Amino acid sequence: MDFSITEEQELLLASVRDVMERACPESYMKECNEKGEYPQALVDALTEAGLTTLGVPEEFGGTPVDTQTLMLVAEEITKLGGPHFVFGQALSIADMLEFGNDVQRRQCMDEVLAGRVGFVLGFTEPQAGSDSSAIATTFTRRDGKVYLSGHKTFMSNALRARYMLCLARNADGASDEKKTNAFSMWWMPMDATGVTIEPLKKIGWHMMDTCEVYLDEVEVDEADLVGVEGNGFMQAMINFEVERLLMASSLLGMAECAFGDALDHAATRKQFGKPIGSFQLIQQKITSMAIKIENMRNLVARTAWKIDNGMPVQTDSALAKLYCAQSANEVIDDALQIFGGIGYTTDCRVSRLWVDARVQRIGGGTDEVMIHIAGRQILKEHTK
Amino acid sequence: MTIVVAYKWAANPQDAQVGADGAVDLSRAKPGVSEYDPVAIETGRRLADATGAELVGLSVGGPQVGTSMARKAALSRGLDRLVVVADEALDGARAATTAAVLAAQVREIGDVDLVLTGDGSVDEGAHLVPAVLAGHLGWPLLVDVTAVERAADGGLRVTRSVGAGTQVLEVDGPAVLSVAADAVVPRVPGMKDILGAGKKPVAEATVGQVAVSEPAVVGRKRPALAQRKGRLLTGADTAAVAAELVAALRADGVL
Ligand SMILES: Cc1cc2nc3c(=O)[nH]c(=O)nc-3n(C[C@H](O)[C@H](O)[C@H](O)COP(=O)(O)OP(=O)(O)OC[C@H]3O[C@@H](n4cnc5c(N)ncnc54)[C@H](O)[C@@H]3O)c2cc1C
Q1: What's the CATH class of domain B2-204?
Q2: In this complex, is the C-beta atom of A8 within 8 Å of any C-beta atom belonging to chain B?
């Protein structure tokens, strides 16, 4: 078993470190976080170095790499204190590149190549969170046009993105359709008439907006259908597993970031005349943090390896997302504890990681949904 | 036109461990293209792109200089091909030897119009190699170079930083230019550059006959720490304290 990384991966990580050192000092992260600003300068620097299009096929201006490499880069960025969302568009735009028509692909890639967000992922609605079969946004055809109506919520990047990949059901369709054939994907400009955006106030993730989006008879064209009518849900599913793994990898990096800071603090902060790291209760935390980080890394690496070797990872990716979301939160919480009072101030980046990591147990499929997916599958495989 | 960039494969000073006695330990530092050399490579790449020249990387040193990692790291920064002399005899070689071997290789490459070097290596930082190299080649040396471009008559127009200003020179023959550390911001190698690096040609050369009398280092000493005055300016009126600080710095001749 070979745990080493290739020379190319090592050099790529050196480039990532270079970009992060130039464009992502902690002072910049702090400023963006406090002002609620998107870290555009960082995204621009990553884009210039070709990092945002890693994993995108060459024909669309990207550089194809294996899953393992994508995960290493995602980990490195958050390990160095960067926000998770600046990397990994290759995965979220894969749906568009696979199912979009030429115009849609071009529009999506123009956004990504310019350092912007490809699109808003329009799934969640007030009544349709974990249960996306409850999506009630509709499309209806009239006079050769298509009209979208409904209410999307928790729309990340809605204030900045120019398009939404909107999942909607046919208003005129049969009501007994299943999740697998009830929904269609529409490519919708965010500046279209009838779109109203209202930002949500969150406890963390301040660098990226998350909004309510109301659609009132938003007019699109027949040509704005993405892929096959009725296949929307299945089209969106193709990439879920690797996207989950990407979240796991970013969480691993966040845990490592907090861990490194905590180690520095444990080694230098003195109480009772000694560095606090000399107390066994602190060492116990450090040891358990180290074990969790090691487990996270192994889960991510093995799942990525399986993907790269064409093996199914439905269970693995759910386990990785579940474990990394929970463990990263535990590690970051322990780090905050090691910092004591200063850890609870905004001067200490661990406090930012603490609120930012929390949402990852909810978004991209909750912990409970991951258990649901993995639990069912594990039993099924055992009994077959 | 052929442009050679001489670069060093050296320990990264950011990994250095500084002991309690101030001694710097680089034994656990990861090697890399020496910190300022990417600036020379980038300067060379831009000139090569503008003139259609070939950009050849040249590095001499111990066996580690020839490793696949060292080659790819250098080539991913924009060089067209490499010439390396990786020989145990050159492990830890100092300026006179290094420059003599570099000069021999520049002659070997042939028809070289320009040799670029970084401002200084990050380990020893003696700033000697460009001068000794130019001496061996019998070429002029220009240091603190901030820009180089093709002049209208086909020669080179070189901008140097001198004191607080700049000087522009025209050079019509081959020359050695030592590029200032802040001349340009080197590009960050992307995945395409890194993948491409493994496919570029690398020639391995041997040390050959280089007779060099290297001056012997017979002692090393750290500079004594300057005595600090330890003056503290305090007061509620920050503007007044600032004025006092400026006056004190003026009085000491700092400003
Ligand atoms: C900051 C942020 C950004 C987001 N960005 C986007 C985005 O860009 N696009 C998008 O479409 N969505 C986005 N989401 C939405 C996210 O995907 C949902 O929040 C998530 O899927 C959970 O849905 P919900 O919030 O409605 O919770 P619910 O589904 O109502 O769940 C509430 C609780 O019930 C549990 N639960 C639900 N069903 C079951 C079950 N069957 N068994 C056991 N427990 C269950 C859940 O695990 C959870 O603990 C974002 C969310 C946040 C917070």
Answers
A1: alpha beta
A2: yes
Place of tokens 């899953």: A67
ipTM (interface predicted TM): 0.87
Q: Which of B69, B191, B198 sits opposite A65 (nearest CB)?
A: B191
* Whether the CB of A362 sits within 6 Å of ligand 1: yes
Nearest to B188 among A8, A49, A69 (CB): A49
- Beta-sheet strands, E only, within chain A: 120-122, 138-142, 145-156, 163-170, 183-189, 195-199, 210-220, 225-226, 270-271, 274-275
Tell whether A12 is within 8 A of chain B (Cβ): yes
Delimit the domains of chain B by residue range: 2-204
Residue linked to tokens 């600080």: B245
By the CB < 8 Å criterion, does A14 face chain B? yes
Q: Is B32 in Cβ contact with A7 (below 8 Å)?
A: no
Summarised one tens digit per residue, pLDDT across range A239-273 is 889 999 999 999 999 999 999 999 999 999 999 99
Atom of ligand 1 nearest to the CA of A132: 21
Across B90-110, average pLDDT: 93
Contact map slice: B 19-48 vs A, CB within 8 A: 32
Percent of chain A with pLDDT over 90: 92
Phi and psi at residue A142, in whole multiples of 5°? -150, 125
Instruction: Specify the pLDDT at position A1.
Output: 82
Q: Which domains does chain A have, with CATH numbers?
A: 7-113 (1.10.540.10), 120-236 (2.40.110.10), 237-382 (1.20.140.10)
Top-confidence range, A268-277, B17-26, B155-164, B213-222: A268-277
Torsions phi, psi for B27 (to 5 deg): -65, -25
A124 lines ligand 1 (CB under 6 A): yes
CA of A366 relative to ligand 1 center, distance in Å: 6
Given a contact cutoff of 8 angstroms between Cβ atoms, the answer to whether A195 and A215 are in contact is yes
pTM: predicted TM-score of the whole model, two decimal places? 0.91
